[in-house]
Amino acid sequence: MKDIPVLRVVTKITIPIILLFAMYVQFHGDYGPGGGFQAGVIFAAAFILYGLVFGTSAVRQVVSPGILRLLTALGLLLFAGVGILTMLLGGDYLDYNTLGQDPLHGQHLGIFLVELGVGITVAAVMIIFFLAFAGRRD
Amino acid sequence: MLTLVTIALLAAMGMALIRAIKGPTVYDRILASNTFSTKTVLMISVLGFLTGESEVYLDIALMYALVGFIVTVAVLKVSEFGDLGQSRPDSGENRQ
């Protein structure tokens, strides 16, 4: 579909905005609508749009499947690692109060890190889904 | 005033939905669903001002506008190419 000029230009303009909005949803999720899962899906939607217009092989050139698999594990590791870290610091699993010098600061940092892990994993898994189901006939 | 706008938007969305269901060709349906998604963006914005939490709802409306574009591109690609991942048109057995 990359031989259609309107679609190509609009896609190239829209993809940075979608990625920026995904970052906004990710890091502003404490105050507005959003969170890790939604931000991950929005982030993956940009790659899916790129894959729809330029083909799945173009997406594979941007993010190789090996890196995607690594990112899937990395997000989960971040999530579980925060939980283990709070246990090492003397609290329960995912007890954010122990992370900072005061409970409010700890809660903020804990939510931030856990949501980042969720976002990375969801974005990577969504792109893997798209590549797996859309590229079957290639 | 905002209630009136909501009712008008609902009527427009209903008409677009009727066209999407009845539409004889696939282009009618795609155009109707695109219109429906645009109307949904407006509807979310109006609802935001109606409830007084406009900054929260405007974020959602922005998101819906971006995703609605992707949905339209995806439906167009499936109806034209028969597959989401292909970069070239196929021989034509999947075309309407």
Automatic annotation (TrEMBL), chain B:
GO terms for cellular component: plasma membrane. The chain crosses the membrane at residues 30-50, 57-76. Keywords: Cell membrane, Membrane, Transmembrane, Transmembrane helix, Transport. It holds the Pfam family MrpF_PhaF. GO terms for molecular function: sodium:proton antiporter activity. The keyword Transport applies. It is a multi-pass membrane protein. Its main location: membrane. This is Other cation transporters (Na(+),K(+),Ca(2+),NH4(+),etc.). The lineage of its organism: unclassified sequences, metagenomes, ecological metagenomes.
